[in-house]
Design goal:
Four copies of one chain form a homotetramer. The first copy, chain A, is α/β, with parallel strands linked by helices. The first copy, chain A, has two domains: about 5-130, Rossmann fold, CATH 3.40.50.720; about 155-315, Dihydrodipicolinate Reductase, domain 2 (2-Layer Sandwich). Chain A has helices spanning about 15-25, 45-50, 80-90, 110-115, 125-130, 135-140, 150-165, 195-200, 215-225, 260-270, 320-330; strands at about 5-10, 30-35, 75, 95-100, 130, 145-150, 175-185, 205, 230-240, 245-250, 275-280, 295-300, 305-315. In chain A, strands 8-9-7-10-13-12-11 form a seven-stranded mixed beta sheet. In chain A, strands 2-1-3-4-6-5 form a six-stranded parallel beta sheet, with helices on both faces. In chain A, strand 1, helix 1 (about 15-25) and strand 2 (about 30-35) form a beta-alpha-beta unit. In chain A, helix 1 packs across helix 11 (about 320-330), helix 6 packs parallel to helix 11 (about 320-330) and helix 7 runs parallel beside helix 9 (about 215-225). The longest helix of chain A is centred in the middle third of the chain and has 15 residues, at about 150-165. Chain A starts with a strand and ends in a 16-residue tail after the last helix. Chains A and B meet through strand 7, strand 8, strand 9, strand 10 and strand 13 of A and strand 7, strand 8, strand 9, strand 10 and strand 13 of B.
Chain lengths: ~350, ~350, ~350, ~350
């Protein structure tokens, strides 16, 4: 490449923001030119996140004065609704947009409005936005102007089920069940009682059982992959760990699946995917095996009565957020997909 | 009562042992007369567990010299196989036995031998042993000589499903799925790499997916409660917390269940049960809400397609082990069931 | 006793509040008649703290309408400044006051105002208030109307040093150093970023090195115990555990101390104290050995050059706050000191 | 460089071993040619440490058959005593040795033998070995054949005190006190009850107060830096976090120090040191700010009576072990010091 990519980050004070900085600060083809925060304008990024001392010398800038249209790409690590308010101007200026919030994940704006309590303000841009799972939509990502970077739970469930759905190996008369578990960083860097150390440590709970925003997102993608309707039950849980996501998925296999080597199906589907690792059958992945890295690991466990349990682990802040966003950026700018993402998991 | 119960504990150096001591040391009707440990004979209990300083003044005694037949009841907090080797002599001497291991949980000795790799040495005593969940078998426990104290996972799954099974409210053509999560103390106080702090902290995993010893135990009880065969899928997970067990159970309701107020069914079934707490519908129990106490909490979440999710929490060392054992002892000796178990959960 | 004590709690929604409830709910001589919270008036206590379901049936009441003067004693588990605004009316009505905040800890109002940024509004009541460490001031507590319940750090440092200071065994030309460590619950149940699980877990830090409010409190008591001025260095640290406080104290012994058996000095000083446990010399107390209990444990470690290291552990929410408050109440109402406090530590 | 360095690792199954692999697997100038383990010979490294799947394709080899003398450098991540048994043959073959255990840290073999209960078998090689803190001994490291890679605690204490000692700014009549705190990974990947999750979580303790092997190591270096004798008190604590080390150091400053800007002294001393970060005065470093990285951060806090508190944080497995070892290797092989160590801390 001739020149570095000029990157802007809107909303760099949350966990996806600092995670983008950790990855992009050492990305050889990236020049971070602006990072904005309304509340922290003027504060040195490294004063808020001392882990970046010596590596990120920028200060947060006021969104009003940041020259984002001068960037090649802007990441939105913001609450829902911010990206869609700024995307039209950026797209018009030829700046690509990668939104880590939900503004460009759901093609059905009515569903978006129901779950996010916001009217969608740029349905036309949404229509051309691409749902950013490289392993599913790599070709579209290449030429996309706007990426809806997937939610953390959806990434695990979709990559966990894709090989089966693509080949019609699930009996869709029986609901697909995803019992999912997330580390607490998934709740974000917001001051809230429920995620205090003294509340969330040495304990666990389910939440959002009656309805979680990732349900419609997963559902929309599952039906698309299946090419038909289906039923999907989703129960997320909060686990006392900082990072890490573990999805335990239960499906009833179709008759067709009885004649298939499922392990081989997964192996072949992901053979060329650097960040998706299919464990040998019966494998027991730990979330720490991907701590800090962009990898996602999958293991298959056949059960009685033609059921299959699929175990999926990822780091919710990397493959489930910032890492996948960088992977999308690499694809959009024709950089090798793993550049800037060669970070080995921290174990122990 | 006229006199205190003379209690012996065999194998007091593990977590169920120290938990028995925590509860029994303040039990007004109990006199702990012996606590044995082959490896630690002569060591003061309070030197090994300083939490008991001033409350337990006994030393561990050599099993060979402990006068266990002089006890009214002996708890076995030992590896599998120990209780059955000593139960015949104790029963002959009129001493009651409460085994916290698996020797008296499975009536089918072939199943026992398959899963525990031990021949069962006293099938006759086993035949008269009672599976010690008071909420299911209180009357039998009253007159039992030998109690097989249930496993931790089984207690959550069985109490979570009993109201449905007793009334035929589950469609047994569809497998019952229990996605269960346990704190690390469930693995016991054994020196093992996998449960080191630096291995098990800030991470999680599934284990025993291909087969866990609690599967046959749960299965045997479920079929008995259902009065028919059924399919049961069980996936346990290890969670980075000391105590606490969370079972997320998925069932397909029967047609009959459509005309029933499930919340009321649970409420009525457990109305007189001091230690089983049915939360209002949609409740989200946290494991810390029972930390250190003998309570078990249940919440119901209806799902799409006639499915129901049941959430169950308990402290694996209390209602899942030592607390339930004391509850059984109280019943056997005609003491009010809550005596010695009035310990409020530690929150935060 | 003839009748139960009528107890009011002001501010029951924080950690010291719920801890008071845990202890008082089972106290045989207590009747909790009111618990107030401006923000949560009308909410059932057990809905906020499900650990209390079935044991505390009260709802939070509006402070404006709670009949606190009808109580025998009122505990203030509130921010600093609340107790002193209400104490005059309560004292006038004959209601005793136990303040778990700092309003009645510092006799010097100028020091109070410097550190707490509040003018002191009832210096006369303060003058008769007693600093509530039973092991130091039991006789005064008996007849006190108002108790300033000590801070958590001060309890450890003062009980750790009392035997030495009372007998002139410290060389006061050399600063006393207290390197103290606290679990995160010490920061309270306030929504703040710094104490989120994802911030405070798997990490540690010092804080308040330039000045912590417990420094003047400890300093005032130390000089009183020593009967002379001295220098005191205090560095608190935040540790990723829910409960627990560990103070490592470094002193230079006086010449007189060379002829004294320090272990015996501590043993004799606390021989009659049920909640202060002196370990054998060289003991290594763990904070979990007092988790959930009102005990405080001390161990002595002689060092080179005539220095001594004193290790002190307590549960910051019990002996460091609510438990000590109940202990004070028992003394004020002539109840045996341990009643309601016979709770064994939770280990593991 | 023309060719890659051929690296061998002896004892790759512990935490320093896997940490070496994490760093070396992506080091552009390193070719890992052998990794040995007596117990795990034949096992794929990535089967034991799934975090390395796809990055380390070696199997553990039997030490008896590994061609270590064919390596350019061999790291010993072994128990004490192993490196000194193999160093003579390696040195004779021209292979450099970096020992992460203690065999080459203490020049006084009598002290070594007292603390490690082993006779020292190669005093001549020890005499030429260099204590591997680059910031102190870079020039000697360049030409060394054998490096005694420092202990984790010593690295923090020595780098925390070097600027003061080099310039005579400490009053050595008063003991230097280091109150040090370590994450549990410091205890290694050994099956032991004391470091089980259920033992070490949600609790803390001091240990080794009566004598810790790092005391003589620190003491020897301190006296050398000071050029005179001194007194050193060291109290290590075990903290419930995986990685991270925090040393709180208390010194009495010399009169000379009163006329000196200490902050500037530290700033200048470490101005050229990429991995030592001096925070602005009053800074409050968190251990997570260096999680996974080779950085060490220092902050100064002046106290009353001419005392100074120095706060030092590092990751015990990186700058405290494997990272420093790689830094030493880079120096020995004339590679830029940061190569392979550009890993940003994982926060959160």
């Amino acid at each position: 490449m001739a020149e570095k990519i000029k990157v802007g980050i809107v909303g760099g004070t949350g966990y996806t923001g600092v995670e983008l900085l950790r990855l992009l600060a050492l990305h050889p083809w990236v020049d971070i030119t602006a990072i904005t925060s309304r509340g922290e304008a003027g504060v040195l990024v490294a004063d808020m996140f001392p882990s970046l001392r010596g590596y990120v010398n920028l200060a947060f800038s006021d969104p009003a004065h940041a020259n984002l249209t001068g960037c090649d790409v802007v990441f939105f690590a913001t609450p829902h609704g911010v990206a869609m308010s700024q995307a039209p101007a950026l797209v018009a200026a030829g700046t690509k947009v990668i939104d880590l919030a939900a503004d460009f994940r759901l093609q059905d704006t009515a569903v978006f409005e129901k779950w996010y309590k916001l009217p969608h303000s740029c349905a036309d841009i949404l229509r051309n936005a691409v749902y950013g799972i490289p392993e599913l939509y790599r070709d579209k990502i290449k030429s996309a102007n706007v990426i809806g970077n997937p939610g953390c739970y959806p990434t695990t469930v979709l990559l966990g089920l894709t090989p089966l759905l693509e080949q019609g190996l699930i009996d869709l008369n029986v609901p697909i069940i995803a019992d999912a578990k997330s580390g607490v960083s998934g709740a974000g860097r917001k001051a809230e009682v429920a995620t205090l150390f003294a509340e969330a440590s040495d304990s666990m709970k389910a939440y959002g059982v009656a309805g979680h925003r990732h349900h419609p997102e997963i559902y929309a993608q599952l039906t698309q992959l299946a090419g038909s309707d289906l039923a999907f039950i989703f129960v997320p849980h909060l686990i006392p760990m900082i990072r890490g996501m573990f999805s335990t998925i239960y499906v009833k296999l179709s008759d067709k699946a009885q004649q298939v080597n499922l392990q081989a199906v997964y192996g072949q589907r992901y053979a060329q995917e650097r960040f998706v690792d299919v464990l040998p059958q019966g494998g027991l992945p730990e979330t720490r095996s991907v701590r800090g890295s962009n990898h996602l690991r999958i293991a298959l466990h056949p059960q009685l009565n033609g059921y299959l349990t699929i175990l999926v682990v990822q780091d919710n802040l990397v493959k489930g957020a910032a890492g996948q966003a960088v992977q999308n950026m690499n694809i959009m700018f024709d950089i090798e997909e793993h550049v800037g993402l060669e970070v080995l998991p921290l174990l122990p």
